[in-house]
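To whoever is on call:

I kicked off a structure prediction for a single chain this morning and the downstream step that reads the tokens threw a length-mismatch warning. I double-checked the sequence; it's 190 residues and nothing unusual in it as far as I can see. Pasting both halves so you can look.
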Amino acid sequence: MKKGLLIVFSGPSGVGKGTIRDLFIHREELNLAFSISMTTRKPRAKEVDKRDYFFVTREEFEEQIKQDAFLEYAEFVGSYYGTPKAYVEELRNQGKNVLLEIEVQGALQVQEKVDDALSIFIVPPSFEELERRIRGRRSEPEEIIQQRLAKASRELEMMGQYKYIICNDDPQLAADLTALIIKRHIQTAQ
């Protein structure tokens, strides 16, 4: 059985990564498995443990750091986020193409560690549209919104470190383009 691809799918918070992902993740020809990240932040409305994230305590996360159990991890606005290494490798060894939906800092860590990672960066049609989307969530106080916007500005400057850049002006088109890129890499890896 051929080892699956590792796909790094990222972009600034609020760009629509989850919406795009939901439009292509179930396409059978892509043989995708969504990598669930671990976090110390509290679940948002409708988020479910072990489906959206592995929600853990700060102490549990820091113990995993000591054990070098992450492919990547970062701390943002007081919470840790990370990708469990063993979980991803298990999926890839099963032949699954593993999709990591992660922030830019983590994506760059993965690209340093995994030479053959396929990297895709999602950009908003404009910074104003990104701000509108973040505010539209109505899930965070103004201080956190400002931190997310400042971080997004820095992250957009790093898009050139990705193999592909896709604008999320139309989520279905962005999903179709992402699926096409993944399919092409699956075919060339065979």
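Update from on-call: the warning came from a stale cache, not from the record. Cleared it. Sanity check on the structure: The beta strands are 6-10, 32-34, 37-39, 53-55, 70-76, 79-84, 97-101, 118-123, 164-167.
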